[in-house]
Amino acid sequence: MTTDQLRSAAHAWLAEDPDPDTVAELQAVLAVGDEPGLIDRFGAKLEFGTAGLRGAVGAGPNRMNRMVVIRAAAGLCAYLKANGLTDGPVLIGYDARHKSDVFAQDTAAVVRGAGLDAVLLDRALPTPVVAFGIRHLGAVAGVVVTASHNPPQDNGYKVYLGDGSQIVPPADIEIAAAIDAVGPLADVPRGDDWQTIGDELLQAYLDRVAALVPAEAPRAINAVYTPLHGVGRDLVVAAVQRAGFAVPKVVSSQAEPDPDFPTVSFPNPEEPGAIDAALELARAEGADIAVANDPDADRCAVAVPDPTAEGGWRMLRGDELGGLLGEFLLSARPEGVAACSIVSSSLLSKIAASYDVRFYDTLTGFKWIGRVPELVFGYEEALGYCVDPEAVKDKDGISTLVRVLQLAAGAKAEGRTLLDLLDDLADRYGLHATDQLSVRVEDLSLIVDAMTRLRATPPSVLGGLAVQQVDDLSLGAAGLPPTEGLRYQLESGARVVVRPSGTEPKLKCYLEVVVPVEGGDVAAARVQAANRLAAVKADLAAAAGI
Ligand SMILES: O=P([O-])(O)O[C@H]1O[C@H](COP(=O)(O)O)[C@@H](O)[C@H](O)[C@H]1O
Ligand SMILES: [Mg+2]
After folding, report:
1. Residue minimizing CA distance to atom 15 of ligand 1
2. At what angle do helices 318-330 and 418-429 cross, to 10 degrees?
Protein backbone atom coordinates (compact mmCIF):
# COMPACT_ATOMS: atom_id res chain seq x y z
CA MET A 1 0.00 0.00 0.00
CA THR A 2 1.28 3.49 -0.79
CA THR A 3 1.43 6.15 1.89
CA ASP A 4 -1.60 7.84 0.34
CA GLN A 5 -3.57 4.61 0.39
CA LEU A 6 -2.63 4.00 4.02
CA ARG A 7 -3.64 7.51 5.00
CA SER A 8 -6.95 7.30 3.21
CA ALA A 9 -7.66 3.92 4.78
CA ALA A 10 -6.91 5.51 8.16
CA HIS A 11 -9.25 8.45 7.49
CA ALA A 12 -12.00 6.12 6.32
CA TRP A 13 -11.51 4.21 9.55
CA LEU A 14 -11.74 7.35 11.67
CA ALA A 15 -15.03 8.23 10.03
CA GLU A 16 -16.59 4.94 11.21
CA ASP A 17 -14.84 4.04 14.47
CA PRO A 18 -17.26 4.15 17.44
CA ASP A 19 -14.45 3.97 20.03
CA PRO A 20 -12.92 7.28 21.17
CA ASP A 21 -9.80 5.46 22.43
CA THR A 22 -8.83 4.02 19.06
CA VAL A 23 -9.84 7.25 17.33
CA ALA A 24 -7.42 9.19 19.56
CA GLU A 25 -4.68 6.61 19.02
CA LEU A 26 -5.03 6.74 15.25
CA GLN A 27 -5.20 10.53 15.17
CA ALA A 28 -1.89 10.61 17.05
CA VAL A 29 -0.32 8.16 14.57
CA LEU A 30 -1.50 10.36 11.67
CA ALA A 31 -0.43 13.58 13.37
CA VAL A 32 3.20 12.49 13.73
CA GLY A 33 3.26 10.85 10.29
CA ASP A 34 4.19 7.49 11.81
CA GLU A 35 4.29 5.44 8.59
CA PRO A 36 5.43 2.13 10.16
CA GLY A 37 2.58 2.61 12.64
CA LEU A 38 0.14 2.96 9.75
CA ILE A 39 1.56 -0.07 7.92
CA ASP A 40 1.28 -2.10 11.12
CA ARG A 41 -2.37 -1.18 11.53
CA PHE A 42 -3.59 -1.01 7.92
CA GLY A 43 -1.07 -3.02 5.87
CA ALA A 44 -2.71 -6.34 6.83
CA LYS A 45 -5.76 -7.61 8.66
CA LEU A 46 -6.22 -10.07 11.53
CA GLU A 47 -6.97 -13.56 10.25
CA PHE A 48 -8.33 -16.63 12.02
CA GLY A 49 -5.27 -18.39 13.47
CA THR A 50 -4.79 -21.31 15.86
CA ALA A 51 -7.46 -19.96 18.19
CA GLY A 52 -9.53 -17.37 16.34
CA LEU A 53 -8.58 -13.73 15.89
CA ARG A 54 -5.80 -12.45 18.11
CA GLY A 55 -3.74 -9.27 18.18
CA ALA A 56 -2.87 -6.10 20.03
CA VAL A 57 -5.77 -3.84 21.00
CA GLY A 58 -5.65 -0.72 18.83
CA ALA A 59 -6.94 0.95 15.68
CA GLY A 60 -7.04 -0.64 12.23
CA PRO A 61 -8.02 -3.97 10.68
CA ASN A 62 -4.79 -5.55 11.94
CA ARG A 63 -5.67 -4.87 15.58
CA MET A 64 -8.38 -5.93 18.00
CA ASN A 65 -10.94 -3.14 18.37
CA ARG A 66 -14.67 -2.46 18.27
CA MET A 67 -14.76 -2.13 14.48
CA VAL A 68 -13.05 -5.47 13.97
CA VAL A 69 -15.28 -7.12 16.57
CA ILE A 70 -18.53 -5.69 15.21
CA ARG A 71 -17.59 -6.78 11.70
CA ALA A 72 -16.53 -10.24 12.93
CA ALA A 73 -19.83 -10.67 14.77
CA ALA A 74 -21.81 -9.49 11.74
CA GLY A 75 -19.89 -11.90 9.49
CA LEU A 76 -20.46 -14.77 11.90
CA CYS A 77 -24.20 -14.03 11.98
CA ALA A 78 -24.35 -13.83 8.17
CA TYR A 79 -22.63 -17.21 8.00
CA LEU A 80 -25.03 -18.74 10.54
CA LYS A 81 -28.06 -17.44 8.67
CA ALA A 82 -26.72 -18.50 5.26
CA ASN A 83 -26.27 -22.01 6.62
CA GLY A 84 -29.62 -22.18 8.40
CA LEU A 85 -27.94 -22.34 11.81
CA THR A 86 -30.50 -20.21 13.59
CA ASP A 87 -32.45 -22.49 15.91
CA GLY A 88 -30.55 -21.63 19.06
CA PRO A 89 -28.76 -18.74 20.69
CA VAL A 90 -25.22 -17.50 20.23
CA LEU A 91 -23.47 -17.78 23.60
CA ILE A 92 -20.96 -15.03 24.33
CA GLY A 93 -18.30 -15.05 27.03
CA TYR A 94 -15.35 -12.84 27.85
CA ASP A 95 -12.30 -12.66 30.05
CA ALA A 96 -11.06 -9.73 32.14
CA ARG A 97 -8.73 -8.15 29.58
CA HIS A 98 -8.86 -4.56 28.45
CA LYS A 99 -12.09 -4.04 26.46
CA SER A 100 -13.17 -7.69 26.65
CA ASP A 101 -16.52 -6.73 28.19
CA VAL A 102 -17.11 -4.03 25.57
CA PHE A 103 -16.27 -6.40 22.71
CA ALA A 104 -18.61 -9.01 24.18
CA GLN A 105 -21.48 -6.51 24.46
CA ASP A 106 -20.86 -5.37 20.89
CA THR A 107 -21.07 -8.99 19.81
CA ALA A 108 -24.36 -9.51 21.67
CA ALA A 109 -25.77 -6.32 20.12
CA VAL A 110 -24.86 -7.41 16.60
CA VAL A 111 -26.27 -10.91 17.13
CA ARG A 112 -29.57 -9.41 18.26
CA GLY A 113 -29.46 -6.96 15.37
CA ALA A 114 -29.17 -9.93 13.02
CA GLY A 115 -32.33 -11.36 14.55
CA LEU A 116 -30.59 -14.22 16.35
CA ASP A 117 -30.86 -14.93 20.06
CA ALA A 118 -27.87 -13.78 22.09
CA VAL A 119 -26.93 -15.02 25.55
CA LEU A 120 -24.15 -13.08 27.25
CA LEU A 121 -22.35 -14.40 30.31
CA ASP A 122 -22.98 -12.05 33.22
CA ARG A 123 -19.31 -11.68 34.25
CA ALA A 124 -15.80 -12.48 33.09
CA LEU A 125 -15.53 -16.28 33.16
CA PRO A 126 -13.25 -19.09 31.99
CA THR A 127 -13.38 -20.09 28.33
CA PRO A 128 -14.52 -23.68 29.08
CA VAL A 129 -17.81 -22.30 30.44
CA VAL A 130 -18.68 -21.26 26.89
CA ALA A 131 -17.48 -24.51 25.34
CA PHE A 132 -19.67 -26.34 27.88
CA GLY A 133 -22.55 -23.87 27.62
CA ILE A 134 -22.87 -24.16 23.84
CA ARG A 135 -23.87 -27.79 24.12
CA HIS A 136 -25.75 -27.41 27.38
CA LEU A 137 -27.92 -24.61 26.00
CA GLY A 138 -28.16 -25.93 22.44
CA ALA A 139 -26.46 -22.79 21.11
CA VAL A 140 -25.70 -22.53 17.39
CA ALA A 141 -22.41 -20.79 18.03
CA GLY A 142 -20.23 -19.37 20.76
CA VAL A 143 -17.75 -16.55 21.07
CA VAL A 144 -15.18 -15.93 23.76
CA VAL A 145 -13.48 -12.56 23.85
CA THR A 146 -10.06 -13.50 25.18
CA ALA A 147 -6.40 -13.47 24.28
CA SER A 148 -5.76 -16.31 26.70
CA HIS A 149 -2.08 -16.35 27.65
CA ASN A 150 -0.93 -13.52 25.38
CA PRO A 151 0.70 -10.33 26.68
CA PRO A 152 -1.49 -7.63 28.30
CA GLN A 153 -1.76 -5.46 25.20
CA ASP A 154 -3.50 -8.24 23.23
CA ASN A 155 -7.07 -9.38 22.94
CA GLY A 156 -8.77 -11.97 20.80
CA TYR A 157 -11.93 -13.65 19.59
CA LYS A 158 -12.44 -17.41 19.83
CA VAL A 159 -15.31 -18.66 17.67
CA TYR A 160 -17.18 -21.93 18.17
CA LEU A 161 -20.02 -23.56 16.25
CA GLY A 162 -22.89 -25.56 17.74
CA ASP A 163 -20.83 -28.72 18.15
CA GLY A 164 -18.92 -26.91 20.90
CA SER A 165 -15.59 -26.92 19.06
CA GLN A 166 -13.67 -23.96 17.68
CA ILE A 167 -14.00 -23.36 13.96
CA VAL A 168 -11.75 -25.05 11.40
CA PRO A 169 -11.69 -24.88 7.59
CA PRO A 170 -13.84 -24.51 5.64
CA ALA A 171 -16.03 -22.73 8.24
CA ASP A 172 -13.30 -20.25 9.18
CA ILE A 173 -12.71 -19.35 5.53
CA GLU A 174 -16.44 -18.96 4.91
CA ILE A 175 -16.87 -16.83 8.03
CA ALA A 176 -13.86 -14.71 6.99
CA ALA A 177 -15.48 -14.19 3.57
CA ALA A 178 -18.75 -13.20 5.27
CA ILE A 179 -16.82 -10.71 7.43
CA ASP A 180 -15.21 -9.21 4.32
CA ALA A 181 -18.67 -8.79 2.82
CA VAL A 182 -19.95 -6.73 5.78
CA GLY A 183 -20.80 -3.23 4.54
CA PRO A 184 -20.38 0.10 6.33
CA LEU A 185 -20.48 -0.15 10.11
CA ALA A 186 -23.44 2.19 10.34
CA ASP A 187 -25.48 -0.34 8.34
CA VAL A 188 -24.83 -3.21 10.75
CA PRO A 189 -28.06 -3.54 12.75
CA ARG A 190 -27.71 -3.72 16.53
CA GLY A 191 -30.12 -4.67 19.27
CA ASP A 192 -29.92 -4.27 23.02
CA ASP A 193 -32.30 -6.95 24.24
CA TRP A 194 -29.91 -9.84 24.72
CA GLN A 195 -30.26 -12.28 27.61
CA THR A 196 -27.65 -12.85 30.27
CA ILE A 197 -26.76 -16.04 32.07
CA GLY A 198 -24.52 -16.83 35.00
CA ASP A 199 -25.13 -19.00 38.05
CA GLU A 200 -27.57 -21.37 36.37
CA LEU A 201 -24.97 -22.35 33.78
CA LEU A 202 -22.13 -22.44 36.31
CA GLN A 203 -24.10 -24.82 38.56
CA ALA A 204 -24.62 -27.22 35.66
CA TYR A 205 -20.93 -27.02 34.77
CA LEU A 206 -19.85 -27.57 38.38
CA ASP A 207 -22.15 -30.57 38.77
CA ARG A 208 -20.60 -32.10 35.70
CA VAL A 209 -17.01 -31.50 36.83
CA ALA A 210 -17.62 -32.75 40.36
CA ALA A 211 -19.17 -35.95 39.03
CA LEU A 212 -15.89 -36.86 37.33
CA VAL A 213 -14.44 -38.01 40.65
CA PRO A 214 -15.97 -41.21 42.02
CA ALA A 215 -17.17 -41.21 45.63
CA GLU A 216 -14.59 -43.75 46.78
CA ALA A 217 -11.54 -41.92 45.35
CA PRO A 218 -8.99 -40.70 47.91
CA ARG A 219 -9.08 -36.93 48.24
CA ALA A 220 -6.35 -36.00 50.71
CA ILE A 221 -4.02 -33.61 48.91
CA ASN A 222 -2.63 -30.17 49.78
CA ALA A 223 -2.60 -27.95 46.73
CA VAL A 224 -1.71 -24.37 45.98
CA TYR A 225 -3.22 -22.62 42.99
CA THR A 226 -2.75 -19.55 40.84
CA PRO A 227 -5.09 -18.21 38.16
CA LEU A 228 -2.21 -15.98 36.95
CA HIS A 229 -4.30 -12.79 37.20
CA GLY A 230 -6.94 -14.41 34.99
CA VAL A 231 -10.53 -15.47 35.52
CA GLY A 232 -10.06 -19.01 36.86
CA ARG A 233 -10.13 -18.58 40.61
CA ASP A 234 -13.81 -18.56 41.59
CA LEU A 235 -14.79 -21.49 39.40
CA VAL A 236 -11.73 -23.53 40.35
CA VAL A 237 -12.38 -23.04 44.05
CA ALA A 238 -16.02 -24.01 43.58
CA ALA A 239 -15.19 -27.03 41.41
CA VAL A 240 -12.51 -28.36 43.73
CA GLN A 241 -14.79 -27.94 46.72
CA ARG A 242 -17.75 -29.58 45.04
CA ALA A 243 -15.56 -32.49 43.97
CA GLY A 244 -14.75 -33.03 47.65
CA PHE A 245 -11.16 -31.80 47.86
CA ALA A 246 -9.80 -29.23 50.28
CA VAL A 247 -9.76 -25.76 48.75
CA PRO A 248 -6.26 -24.98 47.46
CA LYS A 249 -4.33 -22.04 48.91
CA VAL A 250 -4.45 -19.33 46.26
CA VAL A 251 -1.51 -17.06 45.40
CA SER A 252 -2.96 -13.82 46.74
CA SER A 253 -1.00 -11.44 44.49
CA GLN A 254 -2.41 -13.20 41.40
CA ALA A 255 -5.88 -14.16 42.64
CA GLU A 256 -7.96 -11.31 41.24
CA PRO A 257 -8.39 -10.77 37.51
CA ASP A 258 -6.03 -8.01 36.35
CA PRO A 259 -5.68 -7.13 32.65
CA ASP A 260 -2.16 -5.82 33.22
CA PHE A 261 -0.85 -9.08 34.70
CA PRO A 262 1.45 -7.04 36.95
CA THR A 263 3.48 -9.81 38.63
CA VAL A 264 4.52 -11.78 35.53
CA SER A 265 6.37 -10.93 32.31
CA PHE A 266 4.04 -13.17 30.29
CA PRO A 267 0.81 -14.59 31.74
CA ASN A 268 1.55 -17.96 30.20
CA PRO A 269 2.37 -20.87 32.49
CA GLU A 270 4.62 -22.20 29.72
CA GLU A 271 6.95 -19.21 30.06
CA PRO A 272 9.87 -19.53 32.44
CA GLY A 273 9.13 -17.92 35.80
CA ALA A 274 5.38 -17.54 35.24
CA ILE A 275 4.43 -19.87 38.09
CA ASP A 276 7.25 -18.84 40.46
CA ALA A 277 4.85 -17.20 42.91
CA ALA A 278 2.87 -20.44 43.09
CA LEU A 279 6.04 -22.42 43.72
CA GLU A 280 7.05 -20.03 46.47
CA LEU A 281 3.69 -20.47 48.18
CA ALA A 282 3.88 -24.24 47.68
CA ARG A 283 7.25 -24.34 49.43
CA ALA A 284 6.01 -22.14 52.26
CA GLU A 285 2.91 -24.29 52.72
CA GLY A 286 4.71 -27.61 52.34
CA ALA A 287 2.15 -28.42 49.66
CA ASP A 288 1.95 -31.68 47.71
CA ILE A 289 1.24 -30.02 44.39
CA ALA A 290 0.98 -26.61 42.72
CA VAL A 291 -1.57 -26.05 39.99
CA ALA A 292 -2.03 -23.08 37.68
CA ASN A 293 -4.37 -22.00 34.93
CA ASP A 294 -3.65 -19.67 32.07
CA PRO A 295 -5.69 -16.43 32.24
CA ASP A 296 -8.76 -17.83 30.47
CA ALA A 297 -8.44 -21.08 32.43
CA ASP A 298 -8.47 -23.49 29.54
CA ARG A 299 -4.92 -24.64 30.23
CA CYS A 300 -3.65 -26.35 33.36
CA ALA A 301 -0.06 -26.45 34.58
CA VAL A 302 1.17 -28.70 37.37
CA ALA A 303 4.31 -28.58 39.50
CA VAL A 304 5.48 -31.08 42.11
CA PRO A 305 8.23 -31.37 44.70
CA ASP A 306 11.40 -32.74 43.12
CA PRO A 307 14.47 -32.90 45.35
CA THR A 308 16.74 -32.91 42.28
CA ALA A 309 15.29 -29.68 40.87
CA GLU A 310 16.48 -26.17 41.62
CA GLY A 311 14.31 -24.83 44.43
CA GLY A 312 13.05 -28.34 45.16
CA TRP A 313 10.06 -28.09 42.79
CA ARG A 314 9.59 -28.60 39.12
CA MET A 315 6.81 -27.99 36.66
CA LEU A 316 5.70 -30.97 34.63
CA ARG A 317 5.93 -30.59 30.89
CA GLY A 318 2.62 -30.61 29.08
CA ASP A 319 3.57 -33.95 27.57
CA GLU A 320 4.34 -35.42 30.98
CA LEU A 321 0.91 -34.54 32.31
CA GLY A 322 -0.57 -35.72 29.02
CA GLY A 323 1.08 -39.10 29.57
CA LEU A 324 -0.06 -39.30 33.20
CA LEU A 325 -3.66 -38.39 32.41
CA GLY A 326 -3.58 -40.64 29.36
CA GLU A 327 -2.53 -43.66 31.41
CA PHE A 328 -5.02 -42.76 34.15
CA LEU A 329 -7.98 -42.43 31.81
CA LEU A 330 -7.15 -44.98 29.11
CA SER A 331 -6.20 -47.80 31.47
CA ALA A 332 -9.94 -48.13 32.12
CA ARG A 333 -10.12 -49.16 28.42
CA PRO A 334 -12.88 -46.70 27.48
CA GLU A 335 -14.75 -47.21 24.21
CA GLY A 336 -13.56 -44.47 21.91
CA VAL A 337 -10.59 -42.54 20.67
CA ALA A 338 -7.59 -40.82 22.23
CA ALA A 339 -6.00 -37.93 20.37
CA CYS A 340 -3.19 -35.46 20.55
CA SER A 341 -1.60 -32.98 18.18
CA ILE A 342 1.41 -33.90 16.04
CA VAL A 343 3.57 -31.54 18.09
CA SER A 344 2.79 -33.51 21.25
CA SER A 345 4.59 -36.64 22.46
CA SER A 346 4.12 -39.95 20.70
CA LEU A 347 3.71 -41.54 24.15
CA LEU A 348 -0.09 -41.21 24.08
CA SER A 349 -0.29 -43.32 20.93
CA LYS A 350 1.61 -46.07 22.73
CA ILE A 351 -0.52 -45.87 25.85
CA ALA A 352 -3.64 -46.03 23.68
CA ALA A 353 -2.32 -49.06 21.79
CA SER A 354 -1.59 -50.89 25.01
CA TYR A 355 -5.20 -50.52 26.14
CA ASP A 356 -6.75 -51.13 22.71
CA VAL A 357 -8.00 -47.57 22.47
CA ARG A 358 -7.97 -46.08 18.97
CA PHE A 359 -5.65 -43.12 18.49
CA TYR A 360 -5.70 -40.10 16.12
CA ASP A 361 -3.18 -37.36 15.70
CA THR A 362 -4.24 -33.91 14.62
CA LEU A 363 -2.81 -30.56 13.65
CA THR A 364 -1.86 -28.09 16.38
CA GLY A 365 -4.73 -26.42 18.12
CA PHE A 366 -7.54 -27.68 20.24
CA LYS A 367 -9.95 -26.79 17.48
CA TRP A 368 -8.67 -30.00 15.84
CA ILE A 369 -8.42 -32.20 18.93
CA GLY A 370 -11.78 -31.34 20.50
CA ARG A 371 -13.72 -32.33 17.38
CA VAL A 372 -12.26 -35.84 17.00
CA PRO A 373 -15.25 -38.23 16.83
CA GLU A 374 -15.72 -40.51 19.85
CA LEU A 375 -12.99 -38.70 21.76
CA VAL A 376 -12.44 -40.00 25.28
CA PHE A 377 -9.24 -38.12 26.07
CA GLY A 378 -7.27 -35.52 24.15
CA TYR A 379 -4.37 -33.29 24.96
CA GLU A 380 -1.70 -31.06 23.48
CA GLU A 381 1.79 -30.25 24.75
CA ALA A 382 0.81 -26.59 25.32
CA LEU A 383 -0.79 -27.57 28.66
CA GLY A 384 -4.18 -28.23 27.09
CA TYR A 385 -6.24 -31.27 28.15
CA CYS A 386 -9.75 -32.47 27.48
CA VAL A 387 -10.75 -34.96 30.17
CA ASP A 388 -14.53 -34.84 29.65
CA PRO A 389 -15.13 -34.55 25.90
CA GLU A 390 -18.82 -35.41 26.24
CA ALA A 391 -19.33 -32.10 28.04
CA VAL A 392 -16.55 -29.84 26.77
CA LYS A 393 -15.13 -30.33 23.28
CA ASP A 394 -12.22 -28.04 23.98
CA LYS A 395 -9.41 -27.94 26.46
CA ASP A 396 -10.59 -27.30 29.98
CA GLY A 397 -8.20 -26.15 32.70
CA ILE A 398 -10.78 -26.61 35.46
CA SER A 399 -11.95 -30.18 34.90
CA THR A 400 -8.31 -31.07 34.23
CA LEU A 401 -7.25 -29.55 37.53
CA VAL A 402 -9.85 -31.61 39.36
CA ARG A 403 -8.67 -34.78 37.60
CA VAL A 404 -5.06 -33.93 38.49
CA LEU A 405 -5.98 -33.60 42.16
CA GLN A 406 -7.70 -36.98 41.95
CA LEU A 407 -4.65 -38.56 40.35
CA ALA A 408 -2.23 -36.99 42.84
CA ALA A 409 -4.41 -37.85 45.85
CA GLY A 410 -4.72 -41.43 44.61
CA ALA A 411 -0.95 -41.72 44.34
CA LYS A 412 -0.44 -40.10 47.73
CA ALA A 413 -2.80 -42.59 49.35
CA GLU A 414 -0.42 -45.29 48.16
CA GLY A 415 2.65 -43.42 49.37
CA ARG A 416 3.59 -42.40 45.83
CA THR A 417 3.90 -39.19 43.83
CA LEU A 418 3.29 -38.02 40.28
CA LEU A 419 7.04 -38.37 39.68
CA ASP A 420 6.80 -42.05 40.64
CA LEU A 421 3.97 -42.42 38.14
CA LEU A 422 6.15 -40.78 35.47
CA ASP A 423 8.86 -43.33 36.18
CA ASP A 424 6.27 -46.10 35.80
CA LEU A 425 5.36 -44.71 32.38
CA ALA A 426 9.02 -44.58 31.30
CA ASP A 427 9.60 -48.11 32.49
CA ARG A 428 6.58 -49.38 30.66
CA TYR A 429 6.69 -47.49 27.36
CA GLY A 430 10.27 -46.16 27.16
CA LEU A 431 11.27 -42.68 28.21
CA HIS A 432 9.59 -40.14 25.92
CA ALA A 433 11.31 -36.82 26.58
CA THR A 434 10.21 -33.59 24.91
CA ASP A 435 11.46 -30.04 24.78
CA GLN A 436 10.68 -26.89 22.88
CA LEU A 437 12.88 -24.35 21.19
CA SER A 438 10.83 -21.25 20.73
CA VAL A 439 11.98 -17.89 19.46
CA ARG A 440 9.95 -14.71 19.87
CA VAL A 441 10.54 -12.21 17.06
CA GLU A 442 9.71 -8.56 16.46
CA ASP A 443 9.95 -9.00 12.72
CA LEU A 444 7.78 -11.80 11.31
CA SER A 445 9.99 -12.10 8.23
CA LEU A 446 12.62 -13.78 10.43
CA ILE A 447 10.22 -16.71 10.81
CA VAL A 448 9.69 -16.92 7.05
CA ASP A 449 13.48 -16.81 6.57
CA ALA A 450 14.04 -19.69 9.00
CA MET A 451 11.40 -21.84 7.25
CA THR A 452 12.94 -21.00 3.85
CA ARG A 453 16.40 -21.93 5.10
CA LEU A 454 15.18 -25.28 6.42
CA ARG A 455 13.45 -26.03 3.12
CA ALA A 456 16.46 -25.02 1.05
CA THR A 457 18.96 -26.99 3.12
CA PRO A 458 17.16 -29.76 4.98
CA PRO A 459 19.23 -31.16 7.86
CA SER A 460 20.28 -34.79 7.36
CA VAL A 461 21.40 -35.37 10.95
CA LEU A 462 20.15 -33.69 14.14
CA GLY A 463 21.92 -34.33 17.44
CA GLY A 464 23.69 -37.31 15.92
CA LEU A 465 20.38 -38.89 14.85
CA ALA A 466 19.83 -39.45 11.13
CA VAL A 467 16.81 -37.69 9.63
CA GLN A 468 14.89 -40.56 8.08
CA GLN A 469 11.94 -38.64 6.70
CA VAL A 470 11.01 -35.01 6.09
CA ASP A 471 7.31 -34.13 5.90
CA ASP A 472 6.47 -30.73 4.50
CA LEU A 473 3.22 -30.08 6.33
CA SER A 474 2.35 -27.26 3.94
CA LEU A 475 1.76 -29.98 1.34
CA GLY A 476 -0.74 -31.77 3.56
CA ALA A 477 1.56 -34.58 4.72
CA ALA A 478 0.34 -37.73 6.46
CA GLY A 479 -3.31 -37.17 5.59
CA LEU A 480 -3.43 -33.94 7.60
CA PRO A 481 -4.87 -30.71 6.24
CA PRO A 482 -2.09 -28.48 4.83
CA THR A 483 -0.52 -26.12 7.39
CA GLU A 484 2.76 -24.27 7.50
CA GLY A 485 5.36 -26.52 9.13
CA LEU A 486 8.07 -29.14 8.71
CA ARG A 487 8.35 -32.48 10.46
CA TYR A 488 11.53 -34.54 10.70
CA GLN A 489 11.33 -38.19 11.69
CA LEU A 490 14.69 -39.18 13.17
CA GLU A 491 16.16 -42.55 13.95
CA SER A 492 15.24 -44.24 17.27
CA GLY A 493 11.72 -42.76 17.22
CA ALA A 494 12.85 -39.16 17.75
CA ARG A 495 11.08 -36.36 15.89
CA VAL A 496 11.13 -32.61 15.41
CA VAL A 497 8.34 -30.31 14.20
CA VAL A 498 8.98 -26.68 13.25
CA ARG A 499 6.09 -24.25 12.78
CA PRO A 500 5.17 -20.61 13.22
CA SER A 501 2.84 -19.95 16.15
CA GLY A 502 -0.70 -19.06 15.17
CA THR A 503 -1.28 -16.95 18.26
CA GLU A 504 1.95 -15.02 18.81
CA PRO A 505 4.97 -13.80 16.79
CA LYS A 506 7.02 -16.91 17.56
CA LEU A 507 8.75 -19.74 15.75
CA LYS A 508 8.17 -22.97 17.66
CA CYS A 509 10.24 -26.14 17.35
CA TYR A 510 8.97 -29.21 19.18
CA LEU A 511 11.51 -31.92 19.96
CA GLU A 512 11.00 -35.48 21.11
CA VAL A 513 13.49 -38.26 21.78
CA VAL A 514 12.68 -41.79 22.93
CA VAL A 515 15.16 -43.71 25.07
CA PRO A 516 14.54 -47.28 26.21
CA VAL A 517 14.83 -47.90 29.95
CA GLU A 518 17.41 -50.60 30.61
CA GLY A 519 17.04 -52.72 33.74
CA GLY A 520 14.61 -50.27 35.34
CA ASP A 521 17.22 -47.49 35.43
CA VAL A 522 14.93 -44.57 34.55
CA ALA A 523 17.41 -42.02 35.94
CA ALA A 524 20.08 -43.11 33.46
CA ALA A 525 17.56 -42.92 30.61
CA ARG A 526 16.60 -39.39 31.71
CA VAL A 527 20.22 -38.25 31.56
CA GLN A 528 20.67 -39.78 28.12
CA ALA A 529 17.45 -38.21 26.87
CA ALA A 530 18.38 -34.78 28.20
CA ASN A 531 21.73 -34.94 26.42
CA ARG A 532 20.10 -36.05 23.21
CA LEU A 533 17.50 -33.31 23.36
CA ALA A 534 20.20 -30.69 23.94
CA ALA A 535 22.16 -31.97 20.94
CA VAL A 536 19.10 -32.00 18.68
CA LYS A 537 18.20 -28.50 19.84
CA ALA A 538 21.66 -27.09 19.09
CA ASP A 539 21.77 -28.61 15.61
CA LEU A 540 18.27 -27.46 14.82
CA ALA A 541 18.98 -23.90 15.92
CA ALA A 542 22.02 -23.88 13.63
CA ALA A 543 20.09 -25.36 10.68
CA ALA A 544 17.23 -22.85 11.06
CA GLY A 545 19.60 -19.98 11.75
CA ILE A 546 17.70 -18.94 14.89
O1 LIG B 1 -4.66 -19.47 23.63
P2 LIG B 1 -5.12 -20.78 24.09
O3 LIG B 1 -4.83 -21.13 25.52
O4 LIG B 1 -6.51 -21.03 23.67
O5 LIG B 1 -4.30 -21.79 23.18
C6 LIG B 1 -4.32 -21.67 21.78
O7 LIG B 1 -3.00 -21.51 21.34
C8 LIG B 1 -2.14 -22.60 21.56
C9 LIG B 1 -0.81 -22.21 20.96
O10 LIG B 1 -0.98 -22.08 19.58
P11 LIG B 1 0.22 -21.61 18.68
O12 LIG B 1 1.28 -22.66 18.85
O13 LIG B 1 -0.31 -21.56 17.30
O14 LIG B 1 0.65 -20.29 19.24
C15 LIG B 1 -2.69 -23.86 20.93
O16 LIG B 1 -1.84 -24.91 21.21
C17 LIG B 1 -4.07 -24.09 21.47
O18 LIG B 1 -4.64 -25.23 20.93
C19 LIG B 1 -4.93 -22.90 21.17
O20 LIG B 1 -6.23 -23.08 21.68
MG1 LIG C 1 -6.02 -20.22 27.19
Report:
1. 365
2. 80
